[in-house]
């Protein structure tokens, strides 16, 4: 007869039910785990997909930038020959302007030198004119006695015309008409001698007037004028 402390297995139907409940619980836990793993996988896949899409967008942007950069390089390369031509043209213009500047500076230096030379010539001419004026004044003083003798013995008379002009009238020139008047006008304005009028005209008047202007010798001029008038009426 068995003892009261001996193990008595539970009824079979009770053990099976407990096992089924345990399996059901484990299945629920497994389903939860699987769902959790799936969710984590989906999240990881989603994050990876987003990263991939971001990288793709970044790559697309880089490809677009590379494309635009290549297009810009191609454009600038196409413009390079024209830019080189423009640069050459600008360098040529710069060379021409530099040559013009050098030429203008040279012309300025030459003009300055010429101006200085002309100023010296003007100063020399002014000094010479002053000397000639003094000489002419001295010559006129020496001419006065001789001119008075010429007036008396050659029929020469002087006729003031106003201002700085004097008319020299010659008589006793034409043997057939001693009272016939031959005249020449002398203008002494501007400190030099000029001969604006002669009646009758003689061929060498211009040369005689030039000699008078250069030498200031009125006595010699009156003698040569009388000789010229005499030649006009001589047979």
Structure report:
It is a single chain. This protein is α+β, with helices and mostly antiparallel strands and 235 residues long. Strand 1 and strand 2 form a beta hairpin. Helix 2 packs antiparallel against helix 3. It is rod-shaped and about 205 Å long.
What are the key terms here?
single chain, 235 residues, alpha+beta, 4-stranded antiparallel sheet, 3 helices, 4 strands, 72% helix
Low-confidence stretches: none
By secondary-structure content and strand pairing, the structural class works out as alpha+beta
Rg, alpha carbons: 66 Å
Q: Which strand-content bin applies to the residues?
A: 5-15%
Ends: how far apart? 213 Å
- From the spread of the alpha carbons, the general shape counts as rod-shaped
> Which strand order does the major sheet show?
1-2-3-4
By DSSP (H or I, 4+ residues per run), the number of helices equals 3
Helix content estimate: over 70%
- Largest sheet data: 4 strands, antiparallel
Mean model confidence by pLDDT: 82
Tell me the number of strands: 4
């Amino acid at each position: 007869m068995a003892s009261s402390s001996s193990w008595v297995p539970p009824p079979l139907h009770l053990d099976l039910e407990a096992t089924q409940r345990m399996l059901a619980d484990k299945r629920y836990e497994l389903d939860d785990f699987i769902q959790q793993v799936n969710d984590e996988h989906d999240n990881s896949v989603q994050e990876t997909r987003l990263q991939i899409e971001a990288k793709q967008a970044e790559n697309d942007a880089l490809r677009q930038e590379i494309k635009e950069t290549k297009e810009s390089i191609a454009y600038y390369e196409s413009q390079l020959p024209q830019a080189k031509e423009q640069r050459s043209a600008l360098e040529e213009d710069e060379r021409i302007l530099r040559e013009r500047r050098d030429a203008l500076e040279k012309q300025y230096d030459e003009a300055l030198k010429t101006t200085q030379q002309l100023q010296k010539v003007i100063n020399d001419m002014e000094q010479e004119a002053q000397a000639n004026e003094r000489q002419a004044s001295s010559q006129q003083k020496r001419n006065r006695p001789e001119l008075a003798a010429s007036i008396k013995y050659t029929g020469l008379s002087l006729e003031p015309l106003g201002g700085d002009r004097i008319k020299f009238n010659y008589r006793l020139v034409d043997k057939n008409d001693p009272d016939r008047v031959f005249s020449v006008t002398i203008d002494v304005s501007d400190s030099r001698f000029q001969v604006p009028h002669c009646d009758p005209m003689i061929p060498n008047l211009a040369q005689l007037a030039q000699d008078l202007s250069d030498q200031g010798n009125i006595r010699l001029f009156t003698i040569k004028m009388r000789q010229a008038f005499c030649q006009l009426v001589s047979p």
